Amino acid sequence: MSLLSLSYILMAVFLGTAAQLFLKAGTNATPVGFGLALEPRILAGIGCYAVSLVVWILALAKTPVSVAYPMVSLGFALNALLAWWLLGEAVTPMRMAGIGVIIAGVFLVARS
């Protein structure tokens, strides 16, 4: 895998992670309802998803989907860690073990 392909994949994963965190922060700040449509964090999350989609298409143009798609799993680990750090969500030892397994699996796929 080229450095450019890896860069596209990681950028898409980071943008997807940012989108999830923005959406969660937006829903924490505003009651669920029509007010969410104009909540700045919700709009930021939608924007991150839009840019992530474009970057993901660029990644798929340069990388086999059987290699690229498993790397999306890094977003699970990144989301859990950042939600713990930024939002105060609980990350149990079992969850940390699962994150470790995910990262090991992505490493094996990337090396193949």
Looking at this protein, list some descriptive labels:
112 residues; mainly alpha; 5 helices; 80% helix; flat
List the helices and strands and how they pair.
Blueprint: H1 3-29, H2 40-62, H3 65-71, H4 74-87, H5 93-111
Helix pairs in contact: 1-2, 1-4, 3-5, 4-5
Quaternary state of this entry equals: single chain
Fraction in beta strands: under 5%
H/E series, N to C?
HHHHH
Estimated structural class: mainly alpha
Count the DSSP helices: 5
First-residue to last-residue Cα separation: 9 Å
User: How many separate domains make up the residues?
Assistant: 1
What composes the largest sheet?
none
Question: What is the 3D shape?
Answer: flat
Architecture overview:
By secondary structure, this protein is mainly alpha-helical. The chain has one domain (3-111). Helices cover 80% and strands 0% of the residues. The protein contains five helices and no strands. It has helices spanning 3-29, 40-62, 65-71, 74-87, 93-111. Helix 3 packs antiparallel against helix 5 (93-111) and helix 4 runs antiparallel to helix 5. The longest helix has 27 residues, at 3-29. The N and C termini lie close together (9 Å). 24% of the residues are buried. The mean pLDDT is 91.
In short:
Helix content is 80%, strand content 0%.
